[in-house]
C-alpha cells in the first residue's frame, strides 16, 4: 500500500469517530468529525471529502461541506438522507430519516397527582420527617410538593422562556443557559422545563 494511502487511513481513524465507538450518540447519528484534528492534519479535507463521496455526495455538496468546518455553530448542510451539522468541536453526520422518525411532538404534561411519568420525567412524593437533606443529583429535583402552585407543567423549552435563578435578581433566558452549559446545537431542542401553576420555571433539564 502506498505511503500516502496509509497516512490518510490513519488520519481518518483520528478524525472520524463512528457512533458505535462507545460515546453517547444521538438518534440517527452516523459519525462525528473532530474539527481540531481535521484542521491540524494535512489529510483533513481529503478525509472529509472521501467520507462524503462514499455516501454518494456530489462534488459540489462536498465542497460546501468543507466550508461548514468554519461556519457558525448550528449551520447545516443536507444531501438526500444525510445531514451534516456544525457543532462546537465537531461536525455531526446524521441520517435524516432516522432523526425525523424519532422526533417527538411538543406536547405538555400536566402534573397534578403525586406519582407518575410523562415525556421522560418520573416523579413521586416522599415523606421526609427526619430533617435530613436529600441526596445531590443534577438529574433529580427535590421540591416541597404541597407548597407548589399546581398543576405543574412539563414541556420542551421555547424561545423567550426565562428563569429566575435562586438567590439572584432578575431573570436569565433558558437559551442563554443552554449556551453557557455548552449543550450541543442538535440537543438544544430536547431540553425540557418544569413550570408551576403560575408559569414560573422551577427547573431546566438539559440533555
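^ C-alpha cells above, recovered residues below v
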Amino acid at each position: 500500500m502506498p505511503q500516502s494511502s496509509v497516512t490518510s487511513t490513519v488520519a481518518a481513524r483520528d478524525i472520524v469517530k463512528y457512533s458505535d465507538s462507545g460515546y453517547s450518540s444521538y438518534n440517527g447519528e452516523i459519525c462525528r468529525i473532530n474539527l481540531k484534528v481535521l484542521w491540524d492534519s494535512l489529510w483533513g479535507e481529503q478525509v472529509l471529502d472521501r467520507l462524503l463521496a462514499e455516501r454518494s455526495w456530489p462534488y459540489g455538496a462536498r465542497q460546501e461541506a468543507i466550508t461548514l468546518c468554519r461556519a457558525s455553530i448550528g449551520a447545516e448542510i443536507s444531501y438526500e438522507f444525510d445531514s451534516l451539522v456544525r457543532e462546537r468541536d465537531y461536525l455531526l453526520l446524521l441520517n435524516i430519516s432516522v432523526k425525523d422518525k424519532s422526533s417527538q411532538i411538543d406536547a405538555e404534561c400536566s402534573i397534578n397527582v403525586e406519582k407518575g411519568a410523562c415525556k421522560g420525567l418520573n416523579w413521586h412524593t416522599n415523606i421526609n420527617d427526619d430533617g435530613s437533606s436529600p441526596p445531590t443529583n443534577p438529574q433529580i429535583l427535590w421540591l416541597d410538593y404541597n407548597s407548589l402552585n399546581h398543576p405543574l407543567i412539563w414541556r420542551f423549552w421555547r424561545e423567550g422562556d426565562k428563569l429566575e435563578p435562586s438567590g439572584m435578581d432578575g431573570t436569565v433566558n433558558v437559551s442563554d443557559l443552554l449556551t453557557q452549559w455548552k449543550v450541543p446545537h442538535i440537543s438544544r431542542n430536547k431540553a425540557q422545563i418544569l413550570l408551576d401553576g403560575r408559569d414560573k420555571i422551577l427547573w431546566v433539564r438539559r440533555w
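Residues 100-105 have pLDDT under 50 and may be disordered.
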